[in-house]
Amino acid sequence: MELIDRHSIIMGLSCGFILAMVVINLLYFGATKKAVFGAYSGYVIFLGLSLASINGLGAHYLWQHSPWFGQHALAIFSNVSVALSIIVFDLLLDIRSYNAKRSRALQALSIFYVLSASLSLIIPLPVFTSVMSAILVMGWSLTYVLGGWLWFKGVAIARLYTLGRSLLFITLLVVGAQYLNLFNLGINASYLLALAVAIEALLLTLVLAFKHNQQHLDLFKIQSQQLAKTLQDKSALDEILTMQERAQEELEYKMQERNLELEITLRELSEKNHELQEKNTLDALTGVRNRSYFDKKYIAEIRRSRREQTQLSIVMIDIDHFKNVNDKYGHLVGDDCIKAVALSIKNALKRPSDDLCRYGGEEFVLILPSTELSGANTLVENIRQTIEQTPVQSDGFTISLTISAGIATAIAKPELAEKTILASADQQLYQAKNAGRNKVKGIFLSDSDEQEQD
């Protein structure tokens, strides 16, 4: 009875210690989210379950109602624990950074052990035990050898890892030798395994904590170096920025002076350009708008009439028998007559939107936006009467003049060609001439009919 109590106490203490290591590593895993702590927690759990399978605690407390599982428990837990130990070894010692092929080989080997744990459920236990025992020892040996390899490469953490694995590895050899009756130390093999597992769990937990701390120190060192470099760069940057600000201020001052000069120059150029444009749109003889201006203005008013659906009136005016004036009095008197007619027409216009243009020779054209046919006819009739009643005095001669005019009014429709209104005004002009001159003829262009007005 005393022996049983002592056995229970030793096994209980061992399991409690292993459980404490599991809790500590799970807390590390929760705090750091690093896979190595999670994998190591799993390794310690399955290593403890393997130990429970060996010393009978599992069959007594955990799976006492499943004899079948009890037969396979050791094979399952030992394979999974070896698979997890390989994963821990790969992550802890960062094998990939030293040899990527060996890291991939370790990952493949860990998958193999997980599969072998599954195969243990279907392969006869005696066959599986004899084969897998050797394979398990090979897996343990491989990590042990790779740990020694990194030890000799100068990896400090590999030394602690190898020492921890060495204790468990030596204990397994001793237990195996006792099991084969090669020698007997007089100590219960379960106690040896429990002690070795507890010590290895403690050592590897310390190794993980040491690595975590070392990584923090390395990170702190890197951050300190980066901070020092940042401060140095900031100082240099501040100096550069100060120089840039000075240069920027000087540049802005020079640019302001230059911009002021450019503004003055542009203003002068704009004024000259405006003057030039005005000259380019004025008729040199009469001072009214010229043909080039009319061509652009006419198109613009056609489009506005089409857009706003307002009436547009175009008036063509021609001085009657002007060739006879030139032939009888000369071209200089003829020029005075043209200027006098232009002045009379210009004085008759009261709206800023109305435009008078010299169309060519003795012909003039009026653009009257938003003007009905009747309104245009009244305006042009007044102009005709004024010119008829106002003889021109030039070079000692008194010349009586008359004009003929043609008016075309329309609302520009999308289907109406742009030149239609002008052409209709020209046709009305020739009708006025054919009717005896000194007359005004007009027409309203619509979709249904055309209304003429005298």
Topology (elements, then pairings):
Layout: H1 2-32, H2 35-55, H3 57-62, H4 67-92, H5 95-98, H6 100-119, H7 125-152, H8 156-179, H9 189-281, H10 291-308, E1 311-319, H11 322-329, H12 331-348, E2 355-360, E3 363-369, H13 373-389, E4 392-394, E5 397-399, E6 403-411, H14 420-434, E7 440-445, E8 450-453
Helix pairs in contact: 1-2, 1-9, 2-4, 2-9, 4-6, 4-7, 7-8, 8-9, 11-12, 12-13
Short overview:
The protein has 14 helices and eight strands. It is α+β, with helices and mostly antiparallel strands and 454 residues long.
Polypeptide structure, described:
The protein has 454 residues and is of the alpha+beta class. Helices cover 72% and strands 10% of the residues. The protein is built from 14 helices and 8 strands. It has helices at residues 2-32, 35-55, 57-62, 67-92, 95-98, 100-119, 125-152, 156-179, 189-281, 291-308, 322-329, 331-348, 373-389, 420-434; strands at 311-319, 355-360, 363-369, 392-394, 397-399, 403-411, 440-445, 450-453. It has a 6-stranded mixed beta sheet with strand order 2-3-1-6-7-8, with helices on both faces. α1 (2-32) runs parallel beside α9 (189-281), α4 (67-92) packs parallel to α7 and α7 packs antiparallel against α8. The termini are far apart.
